[in-house]
Amino acid sequence: MMARHVSEEQTPLGMSVEIEPMEAKSADTLPAGEGWQYEPKWDGFRCIVFKNGGNVDLRAKSGKPLGRYFPEVVDFIAALPVARFVVDGELVVEIEGTLSFDALQARLHPAESRVRKLSGETPARLVAFDMLMDTDGVPILDQPLADRRARLEDFAKIIDADLRQLVVSPFTRDHQKAEAWLSGSGNDTDGVVCKRLDQPYRPGERVMTKVKRLRTADCVVGGFRYGSDSELVGSLLLGLYNDKGKLDHVGYTSAIPVSEKPDLTKRLEALRGEPGFTGKAPGGPSRWSNERSSDWQPLRPELVVEVRFDHVTGQRFRHGTKFLRWRPDKRPTQCDFRQIDH
Fold this sequence. Notes:
Elements: E1 4-5, E2 23-26, E3 36-41, E4 45-52, E5 55-60, H1 71-79, E6 84-95, E7 98-99, H2 101-106, H3 112-121, E8 124-133, H4 145-159, E9 166-168, H5 175-183, E10 191-196, E11 206-212, E12 215-226, E13 233-241, E14 247-253, H6 261-269, E15 297-298, E16 304-309, E17 322-326
Parallel strand pairs: 1-5, 2-11, 8-9
Antiparallel strand pairs: 3-10, 4-5, 4-6, 6-7, 6-8, 10-11, 12-13, 12-15, 12-16, 13-14, 16-17
């Protein structure tokens, strides 16, 4: 039977497909004490999956439908030996044993032929971590997490979750083990999500806690941008040397204390000089914020700064980084991609 998508107006399970996922607020440390469950924070697309007979709907955190971009997941869910359920999870793509956010983003393509090709070459899978409606079609949002997790594990046994296209996220209730997850090397998850065992599912509310795995890197300041309508520095452009000895642009940091900007601007202006970046260079307009000047100023590669970052995608910091400190003790040539290799 060919699976078909559920329209936005349909609510075949008595639960709106526009339900907002429960979210998490950020923290610097893992909460301790009784009553906590810890789970890996997956680096993928949040997805609530609805199934009712042959109808399957995948919904992003934004509420937008995802089914057309992940047809292999829709077909797999439709073929499961369970007529109805709603689960919350994360869509991920694994390439050579490592989660690839680039491969996920490549799916958001307007051409159906391209999506179908990628679905065969790099199939996505669902990592399920919560159940909102059980296999009897009964909503269980009001039940505590401990009970919903038990239902999810029963569901996994029914469908044989050893199948690679759907796995149930691991968890621990041991704080020490969760700390090991957070600091462990070779783990490509995003951090740790902490949930109260007695808590019901609260759509749209930030009632969980997330602690991200953050790393640091020493980067060369290859350029800077002035702030919008300002004569003072707005952001530093960061670079790392590639294996050919060229300085590639990898991201930026703008968390510069206001009190330090006047002196720093003078220091940067004294170092202005071509080419700044000898490998991949920043574009013209800023890709991060229209509040910054579109032009960037190249610098001689003399300054090294230590920054904190979370993710690397396509050999670039996916998000802005946090300025930590200057590193006058480091040679710029010591700042290469080996620091951020997975």
